[in-house]
Amino acid sequence: MYLWDYEMRPYKETIDGLSALPRLKIAVNALSWTMRTMTPPIADESVVAFVADVLEHLQQQIRQGNASPDFITELDERHEALLDEEIAEAGVDPILSAVTGCFGYGEPELRTQAVYDTLSSCYEAQLQRIAPDMAGIEFERESARCLEVIDFQKTLIDQGGDLDE
Predict the structure, then answer these.
(1) Between residues 15 and 105, the one the model is more confident about
(2) Domain-embedded: residue 99
């Protein structure tokens, strides 16, 4: 288990109390922030371009009030192709998992578990970038970056998915 699991467990109930659109905003904004702030950034351009296109699609769906966006065929095919490539770069697998969570695993409504999984995957991606050997919970407690990610996600949930940037 990660520090994230201990810190974020109480927030699962808060997410559960939200309607689907704020849940989607939380997932999308967490993924967007993760990609913007990840250090070092993901180098694989196909992954970066794919996530940017996914985020653009999801943000458009949010603007239209669609809380249950479909994983459109073109994006789904690109996602599958990236999974098939088995990209070895640290943090890529969790980012691709976070994308899947944003679409609610194909269910008709974005449920709490999908949002929670997306947040967890975003944290794991960040952790893999700063500590590829998965240094352990003591490392996480002392890592300013790990704590920053957890604090950001808590704030995002508290604000119902809206960012004050």
Answers:
(1) 15
(2) yes
